[in-house]
Design a protein that fits this description.
Strand content: under 5%
Radius of gyration: 18 Å
Oligomer: single chain
Largest sheet: 2 strands, parallel
Strand order of the largest sheet: 1-2
Shape: globular
Helix content: 55-70%
Length: 205
Amino acid sequence: MFALGAILLTNCTKPSGSLDEKLSRFINAKKLQAYALAQNSGTKIPPRVIELFEAIRADDSAAAAKLFQKLDADRNAPPPLWEAAGDWLAARIGTPPLFKNSWYGAAWEPIREAYWTYALSRTWSSQRLNSIVHEITSVIGTNNIYFGGTDVGRFAVTAAMEDHELGRPCFVLTQNLLCDASYRDYVITMFGSRLSIPTAADFVE
């Protein structure tokens, strides 16, 4: 899906312009969240992420699409054998991983949310996108849990929240990724004190 989305964003975008204030605030909040999550877990944000956020801020959709596609490919690439062996050994003896990378942790999720929210803003009619988001958010209510399973249903609705990290006015998750350890870590960091999030052990059972 992500490679296809990058291709679509490269070829079917609106003319470049300045980002609207709400979108700009959301993307900046996700950037800060990604850096905080990486710092808390001892991981390092690659320079290419900085370039991605700069491309988004400059409303350079083609550059943003190419950067995100490369980041996503890097994230999904298997680690070198010696790194995998070192982390396997660390797990066996109960110590932290020897080779930490932000792409294996929660820091990737706010980066993904920032990019796809931006991508939707550049490929959808603002009127149509806002209409769909309004139809969804108007019936969710306060302090409820909403599961978004599509790009619009997840990313655009997430951006429409007053404060996504605090779950205001509601908690936005995607059921599609609850089996992914990085995503679970991400939502547990945000909502774990208020919601019961499935753990890895729950999926084993």
